[in-house]
Amino acid sequence: MIRIILLFFSFSLFAQDANKTVLQVLARMNKVHDYKVDAQITSDIPLIKIMPAKATIYFKQPEKFRMMTKGIAILPKKGFTDLTALLKNKAAYTALFTGFEIIEGVKTESITLLPTDDSGEIVLAKLWVDTNLDLILKSQITSRTNGTVLSSYVYGAEKAFGLPSELNITVDVKKFKIPKGVVVDINRTAVAPVNTRKTGQIRLSLTNYVINQGIEDKIFKN
Prior knowledge:
Helices cover 16% and strands 45% of the residues. By secondary structure, the protein is of the alpha+beta class. It has a single domain, classed as Lipoprotein localisation LolA/LolB/LppX (outer membrane lipoprotein receptor (LolB), chain A, Clam). The strands form two sheets. The protein has a ten-stranded antiparallel beta sheet, covered by helices on one side. A two-stranded antiparallel ribbon has the order 2-11. The longest helix is centred in the N-terminal third of the chain and has 28 residues, at 2-29. The radius of gyration is 19 Å and the shape is globular.
């Protein structure tokens, strides 16, 4: 009986620590009411030809998001907002401490988020947090629509706001939706190449942030 009580106490302590870490990350995120940023987007998706694209990204609390580009930019659907929306809805998940991991020389705390809604879009989420700076260095989201999306974050001048200077995304090729207008690289006069890669890569370089200067709602209307 004593052993069972001790195990339950240890589990509760880890859960409490995980919730504390999530709250600290959210506190940094909540410093941002809105932002505008320039993005250079490069993609490496099997069998897809796409040129690098320049875009302007707009965000406004709580979940308004829009990306404007003259070219074709490939991003996972709702890839920028799913994690933030989940974290802010504390009733939507249970946070569990699942260990420590070294990422790029930094000791991170690994946290698994278990959604409370079994029928929701997000099936499972995982974070790797630098608890000294309250920054997410890596995230992994498994959803019904996009499969598993793994993101790694590099921070620069705007790390005080939790905004990255570089975002590297790994997507599940089987679940990835090909946008209209993208050229599929298959030679129809020969045998189609066999794709053995299960993942694709998308890299965003983010510069010229304008933070908390106000963005009109009309920006987010189509």
